[in-house]
Amino acid sequence: MAYVLAGGRGSRLMELTDNRAKPAVYFGGVSRIIDFALSNAINSGIRRIGVATQYKAHSLIRHMQRAWNFMRPERNESFDILPASQRVSENQWYEGTADAVFQNIDIIQSLAPKYMVILAGDHVYKMDYELMLRQHVDSGADVTVGCLVVPRMEATGFGVMHVDEKDGITDFVEKPADPPGIPGDPEMALASMGIYVFNTDFLFDQLRRDAADPESGRDFGGDIIPYIVKHGKAVAHRFTDSCIRAAEEIEEYWRDVGTLDAYFEANLDLTDVVPRLDLYDREWPIWTDQIVAAPAKFVHDEDGRRGTAVSSLISQNCIVSGATVSNSLLYSSVKMGSFSSVERAVILPHCNIGRGARLTNVIVDSGVRIPEGLVVGEDPVLDAKHFRRSEKGVTLITKAMMAKMQGE
Fold this sequence. Notes:
alpha/beta, UDP N-Acetylglucosamine Acyltransferase, domain 1, 10 helices, 29 strands, ATP-binding, Glucose-1-phosphate adenylyltransferase
């Protein structure tokens, strides 16, 4: 069984998560972030899936009901959405990632999985979990931890594994200032991906032990994994061993799109001539909600008023009317008026870009109406006055910000 932890807000995405959980944030033109973990599970042959939700989960639950309702119990398949529902105590919501599994032990037991694959629902990557599960079984580990190989000093924001020559985990350090290197490759480190494989019975024993500890934070990375490292057998699984790459993909692609800049850059990665993450890979599809909509349309063919898009992804139901799109993603149902332009822009669904508007280095949240002639991305001081501006100069525009600016 795959169990996806999808309850987090993702506060570093600022206003993008004011009304939706981070796993429900749009990504890649047609998908939501959670679709990557769920698609990996399906493509890996896992047909029992549970998703724990908590923070502002309505749009996430609605998306999963629409996109993931094809699982059939008569084929021994199941897809369970598990909101925090005070199953253990009338005043207790999910208190941590481990608690989000502990509170649903009875539901998991009814499905009787032999192994549990615990996943984070807020990362973008393609991975075959079967290969990690096979390593777990062959090694006899109590827990197998999915790990990224990263430059050592870039691992300071992760949980880092100290391993022996056989990738047995000898220590687990949370966000160390001086991360330990890998044996034989001291300038690289193994950083946790937040992916864990357990034998189910062993996991339940650990969750019950942890729940009885009043000092625990009820967290996998902070409590469960460090305890097993000290008292059991923990083994690292390297992402390089199970990463899925299409023929054109030259590197293992994994992104935590947890900040505005990371989210912006990962979306724009898809506009490259040879994208680092291939969404066109039919061998490993990213499943999502297939909306019923008209094809994208480009109209007007006059000098200075020509509907064009270059190095961009244009989704269904978009109309580019005498406008210019460059190095950008337009999600579904975006309308662009004549003489408007967007460059290095991520435009979420149902936005309307007014005539003559110019947007550069922007994220526009869903449903925003950009007024005629608005210019964003050319005057940092003015942008920061009305909108959210990131450390790297990306401007986020939301409906609330736009309403406040127009009311001033």
